Amino acid sequence: MLSKTIIRNFTIAILMAIGIGLFSGTTIFSQNIETIKISGNAAGVSTRYIGAVEGNINFDIKDLQDLGINTYRIYGGMSRWEAEDDDGKYGWPSIDEIKTNPNIINWAHWDQIMTNPPQGSDYWWSGKPGTVWQGNARTIFNTLKQANIRPVVSIRNVDNGWKPSWALQLNPPRTGEDWNEWWEHVFATVYWLNVRNDYRVDDWEIHNEPDNRDQGWGGTRADYFELVKVAKEAIDFVYKTYLPDRTYRIHGPKTVGGSNWPASALQEIPNYFDTVNVHNYDADISNYTRKVRGWMNGTVRANSQLWVGEWGTYNMSYGDLSLALNLIKNLIRGSQPGDNYIDGSHIFCLYDWGKPAGAEGLLGDGGKRRAGYYALRMGISALQGGKATFFPITNSSDLMAVATLDASKNVYLLVVNDRATSYTVNADISELIKTGNGTVREFSSKTMDEVVGSLRLKGGNASFALAGNSAILIKFDRQN
User: Fold this and answer.
1) What is the pTM of this model?
2) pLDDT for 310-336, tens place per residue?
3) Reduced to 3 states, what is the DSSP secondary structure of residue 413?
4) Which has the closest alpha carbon to 262: 231, 293, 235?
5) Between the CA atoms of 428, 433, 438 and 443, what dihedral angle is there, to the nearest 10 degrees?
6) CB atoms near residue 295 (< 10 Å)
7) For the residues of 120-155, what is the DSSP string, one character each?
8) Which of these, 4, 127, 141, 374, has the minimum number of CB atoms within 10 Å of its CB?
9) 137-142: long-range contacts (C-beta < 8 A, 24 or more apart)?
10) Which run of H or E residues covers position 455?
């Protein structure tokens, strides 16, 4: 009979061998085994721009950089930067007068509101005093420029609170005086940010969800199309006159998920915007993405970029693990080729928006990072920036996976398991890399996008454990 010591040592040796095998490419015995073989043929490139919509409780560049986003969406408009008519004389100056002499605009107003906003906050218009970030628009835009984060700015006459009250008379614009005020506001916003200052803001949205009356648009679809046309003329005038070497982009039509307004916009005003941008809060964003791509086909926007200006959630907690895992899955879907592909996106929202009843963001009070923050960070690490994408030759019914290759030839393998069942994954990435060590990061209820070990390839193959309701990201550094 074996002694207890021998039995104990034998048991420890077996457990150690299994533990080492999880991250060393050795054989693992498990009831739930999935094999993933990654194709060596690039399917396309990953989403180039992954970012977030702002939130009003904070703005901290360290958060944006830690998350890894490279674009940031900002709500502009009259309620924020022209809460009262900037010159106090409705309908003046005229469009022609501004074209002749832009200094006819009351730039003292614009300098003041952008530098010394009411209550010390650029979010004074949406939030209770003492609950919103303290700082001005100048700081936001200068910080984004220095960090090379691409801003996308919405311009609107009236916001979701139906403010400012003075602008209700041009919601929608009807008279010459109405159009003068709208043209002036668009011109002044673009001119102040890029001519009077050089903040490199070249992406513009015209209103926000005009097909959703709760967001403040008081006109019809046809009225909205006219609003876009006039805004386009004002933006175009700024760039052609003062910034002839700069390229700008107009995103439209900025509609709610499932809307058919994009189909009409693509038929009726396709030359007044160049980037198709919609909102989509579906659990699986690919269904509506394909529909919009279908509408784009056969139009002058067939090969234009498609952005999702809002996605994620506005009524659930980003602390929910299942929701967080689905964020990664949607990032993978958006990096799939063909009609699923998304060029850029902004998750709603980075910070909490208003307290206590407003939307909950990826970050809360005191910089609290919720599960969705860490999930998004993991997905961004693997996918952002137009990396070459490689997908499994045979898709698993239980797991979602993608591999990417960056400009330095480093390989990333991202695998998501949103089921309660744990798996042993046998991964074959031999078509991309055959030898080397990989750093393993895990996202789960226990580990929020942290390094949990290393993995050694053998002939391009390795095995690793994938817990239930978790994701694994393995980076194979080509230098190692």
Assistant:
1) 0.93
2) 999 999 999 999 999 999 999 999 999
3) strand
4) 293
5) -50
6) 18
7) GBTTTTSS-TTTS--B-HHHHHHHHHHTT-EEEEEE
8) 4
9) 137/81, 137/113, 138/114, 138/197, 139/59, 140/59, 140/74, 141/193, 141/197, 141/199, 141/201, 142/199
10) strand 448-457
